[in-house]
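Here is one chain, start to finish.
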Amino acid sequence: MKLYKIHKWSEVFENADSRKRVRLGYYYMPSGCDSSGYLGLMSEFEPAESWQAYGIFVALCQHAATMDKEVRGSFLNSDGTPMSVRRLALIIRADVSILERSLEILMHHSVKWVSAEDMPVICQSPADPVLENSGFVQGQGQGQGQGQGQDTMSDDAPPAEDGVLELIEEEIETGPTVEDEAERVWSAYPSKAGKAKAMPHVVRAVKAHSADWLIDYIERYNAACYAIGRSVKNGDTFFRNDAYEDDIPMIPMTQAEIRKRNAMSGSCL
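Its structure:
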């Protein structure tokens, strides 16, 4: 399995202050368009693929910034295992084939914005060996009904080819889990304060509604708050109090809209 990382995340996208923070509400994006990576991205590939890969990279950075400081910049599941490309695509809402091609470009030697390292596959520990004179008789309980010695793998069977186990793992993924959808909803919420406390409530919200419904509500709620000059609630407060069940704040009409409404009303008299 491969562990994908934002190359030099800590050195490039954070500073001394942000490295102390458990979670980030923002991250630092280097300025300028003259870095070797940017020039390589825009000169070595077709423009459509270059801009597509650039957009994917920004989305990857946005997700990486929401992770705990110990693993920021590395795409790991909550259990510490590497995220598959399919799961990562679900989180950033990208097409799997587009993400795969973009990762190839971003890992190219002329860009080097993303890196990948091989991680050992964690397999189940083998059963304890049968102790001599333990009373356990070969064939009794072990292999019964299967035909002793039949359809078993020999000790010298060749190992699976590289990548086979990863393909098998991706094949058994039938769709996003509730936790995946909750991560997607959290990524859409503008205030990232209190993620650890909020996530159980986000999961509950996803179960009550759907991720797409919640994201649509969040977008309308954020736009309304911006229009009336009100700050959005902290993420923990918003989801703990089921604020998504409330009505969207009313957006005041502009003077032009008021005049237009009055003119239309007068024409109907």
